[in-house]
TrEMBL record:
Keyword tags: Signal
One Pfam assignment: SBP_bac_8
InterPro entries: SBP
Keyword Manganese (UniProt): no
KW Transmembrane helix (keyword) present: no
Protein name (database record): Spermidine/putrescine ABC transporter substrate-binding protein
Organism: Acrocarpospora pleiomorpha
Amino acid sequence: MLAPRGHVEWGGTDPQVNWVGGFEAASGCKVNYLPFAYDPAVDQSETLDPDAFDVIAGPPDLAGRLVAEQRVAEIDTDRVEGYQDIPKRLREAAGGHGVPYLWEKNVLLYDSSKVRPREAEAMYADAGPVFVRDTPLSIADAALRQGVEHPFALTAEQLDAAVGLLEKEAERVYWRDPLQVVTGFAAGSARFGQGTPYLLDVLDRAGRPVRAVAEARVTGQVDSWQVSAEAAHPECAYQWLSWVTSAEVQRKAVAWTGMAPANAEVCEAAPKDVEPAVRERAERVCGLYGVGTSRAFKGVSFADYPAKDCPGRDGECTDYAQWVDRWKQLVD
């Protein structure tokens, strides 16, 4: 099992945070979890060999790459309990090769004691420091702010324009761990930063003067589970997909990660046996994302895998390899 840290907890980080033990006891399957952080700039082909894992979770660009390279199998949704109860928007974002797990949307944060932007574009002209999520998909945020209708399907001209906007930032800090954003604003060093509603809430409750720029449209991402095309234990793999789709498990994952659940049942009244701290944290996250309400996905463009063969463009779009190349030039 490959997944980012925090997506799978077995009690090793905190004895009270464990949704692997219950799965092993209920299914008879044995979980061998390997923390995995996807990095498109590094050759991880050996780790991602279909023979090396049964199930994998990660961001949409990793999921898209695994599909494009035929490393994962199409999901038999009839074998995943609760799949049809997942909102259609999330199922569409994950595609036919993934089961939605957790999701988030990106908001632009700023230190109101230092700057008072009227629009998000102000971050690109700012002297910084500006904290930017270290992923090629951040290019889509710039494209969206330039008025592009489909920010993950860019022509060569649109890609150039979006990257050009990112190049204007004088001092950029590229982050992969959300704690870097929290620390940056808490220490007073960050002026702008890509974040999430949860990170904004953390900083607000800490008394920091951090606000979010109001935007009609933002980007988002769905982290999904996929099954290897060469899974050695497909039965256990599908039992795991059903397990992590349940409200019980996702409630724990939401409370631990601060990401929103794919299963909206998490945000309904929790059973009495749910630990109070888990219930409180999950309810807070549900409220921040408006899960189960009409505002949950309003204005959100969920990330897709950039490909040349994009709808309505006659193959004129730039592909993921081009995005990665341009991103490496920015970061380096």
